[in-house]
Amino acid sequence: MIDLGISKLALIGAVALIVIGPEKLPRVARTVGTLLGKAQRYVNDVKAEVNRSMDLDELRKMKDTVQEAARDVEQSIQSGASDFEKQFSESGQTLSALSDTTPAYPEYKHPRKNWRLKQGATPQWYKARNGVRTKALSGAARVARYRPHKIN
Q1: Cβ distance 85 to 95 under 8 Å?
Q2: Compositionally biased, Polar residues: which spans (predicted)?
């Protein structure tokens, strides 16, 4: 970069004031400032583009290494499976004999819940213990339930 100190900037300003004149100097300074700003933005854009391309190259290299590792793992698994099949076939059994056996875990049973029914968070035993109504009563049933009993 150009090494510009305060003394050099003052010298450039004095020469510009003499050559351009005091009337045109503010307009020229504004134009030079805008041009310098555009140049800086252009340089920053070029730097950003170069950095993006370098990052893209690094990502491509990383993708290739990950794919190679995945291929190696796949090949090792396939070779292990083929070795297992060879050992199993040598022992006189087949893979179909293993699949004919019943599974050691229980078979899935659907819970048969009514998912449309809204379930509260309060347990039923708590409601029963504290006398919370869980079902709606009609007016006649409520009157009959809470009518005082006649004592004879």
Answers
A1: yes
A2: 89-102
- Please tell me which residue, 119 or 51, carries the higher pLDDT value: 51
Q: At what angle do helices 25-90 and 6-20 cross, to 10 degrees?
A: 130
Residues 81-111 as b or e (16 or more Cβ within 10 Å = b): eeeeeeeeeeeeeeeeeeeeeeeeeeeeeee
pLDDT (tens digit per residue) in 11-45: 888 888 888 888 888 898 899 889 999 999 999 99
Integer CA distances (angstroms), 148 to 78, 143, 151, in order: 82, 9, 9
Euclidean distance between CA atoms 127 and 120, whole angstroms: 11
Cα 128 to Cα 114: distance, rounded to the nearest angstrom: 22
- What is the CA 86 to chain-centroid distance, rounded? 43
pLDDT in tens, 85-94: 888 888 765 5
pLDDT at 99: 55
The residue ranges of every structural domain in the chain are 6-82
